[in-house]
Design a protein that fits this description.
CATH superfamily of chain B: Fumarate reductase/succinate dehydrogenase, transmembrane subunit
Number of domains of chain B: 1
CATH class of chain A: Mainly Alpha
Radius of gyration of chain A: 21 Å
Helix content of chain B: over 70%
Helix content of chain A: over 70%
Order of helices and strands of chain B: HHHH
Largest sheet of chain A: none
CATH superfamily of chain A: Fumarate reductase/succinate dehydrogenase, transmembrane subunit
Strand content of chain B: under 5%
Distance between the termini of chain A: 70 Å
Number of domains of chain A: 1
Largest interface: A-B, 33 and 28 residues
Oligomer: heterodimer
CATH topology of chain A: 3 helical TM bundles of succinate and fumarate reductases
Number of helices of chain B: 4
Shape of chain B: elongated
Structural class of chain B: mainly alpha
Radius of gyration of chain B: 20 Å
Distance between the termini of chain B: 68 Å
Order of helices and strands of chain A: HHHHH
CATH architecture of chain B: Up-down Bundle
CATH topology of chain B: 3 helical TM bundles of succinate and fumarate reductases
Chain lengths: ~130, ~130
């Protein structure tokens, strides 16, 4: 069989033609953020418990430490990326009309990016302030 | 158009609920709930960065009975999604697919969710 572009390898010809398209990258990102969130969430829950009743100065000092600040930023990024990936799948599964689906997807991804940015900026401000 | 009768997925109202499909949809529901609940924690973080007055307001909102109720619900959803997420990661790695082990790991997830939620609240309120 002669292909129109006979110089290309078999793999090169089929690459990108599967049903998953960029689905693997989405699936993999969801797993990687999940894996990162296991220790980050446990650390955050333990930290929050130790901060019960703490005043503004104590919380600011805690979040302003380099290690705590970096872990908080990692947590915020992983949380909002993971949430956006998961919510996108829920929208794609249940919203069948094309226009509302695209509006919902754009809203969820835009909001996740913006809220994540608010979280990162808040932590940076606490780090610089202390 | 070919009118062959193709197999349909079971209709929800006549489908017999089992631990497998219940925990599966619960994973999704807790995921959506956590996405919304995370706003409460982002508010707390942003208030801390804004200043002492805003932080005092945030502490009062979260410390009120409705704030605590939301936080309690959020903690159950968090620990469930965390434990069941680990179960999903094990499946992705190829482990635990037999029916008995799926049931067993499902029960373990429910037990661990209850234990972790109670432990976190006892640690937070009593110790």
């Amino acid at each position: 069989m002669t292909a129109p572009n006979g110089m290309r390898t078999m793999l090169g010809r089929v690459r990108g033609l599967g049903s998953a398209k960029s689905g693997f990258a989405h699936w993999w990102a969801q797993r990687m953020t999940a894996l990162a969130l296991v220790p980050l969430v446990l650390w955050f829950v333990i930290s929050i418990i130790s901060l019960v009743g703490a005043d503004h100065a104590a919380v600011s000092a805690w979040a302003g430490q380099p290690v705590c600040g970096a872990l908080l930023i990692a947590l915020v990024i992983a949380v909002f990326h993971h949430a956006q990936l998961g919510l996108s799948v829920v929208i794609e599964d249940y919203v069948h009309e094309e226009a509302p689906k695209i509006v919902a997807l754009v809203l969820v991804r835009g909001l996740a990016g913006l809220l994540g940015l608010i979280g990162v900026v808040s932590v940076l401000k606490l780090m610089v302030g202390s | 158009m070919d009118a062959r009768k193709r197999p349909l997925s079971p209709h929800l109202q006549i489908y017999r609920w089992q631990i497998t499909n219940s925990l599966s949809i619960l994973h999704r529901m807790t995921g959506v709930a956590l996405s919304v609940g995370t706003l409460l924690l982002l508010y707390w973080l942003a208030a801390a960065a804004t200043g002492p007055a805003a932080f005092a307001t945030a502490q009062a909102v979260i410390g009120s009975w409705i704030g605590r109720l939301l936080l309690f619900g959020w903690s159950i959803a968090l620990f469930y999604h965390l434990c069941n997420g680990l179960r999903h990661l094990a499946w992705d790695a190829g482990y635990g697919f037999s029916l008995p082990s799926v049931t067993k790991s499902g029960m373990a997830v429910l037990g661990a969710t209850a234990v972790l939620t109670l432990a976190a609240w006892i640690a937070g309120l009593v110790i």
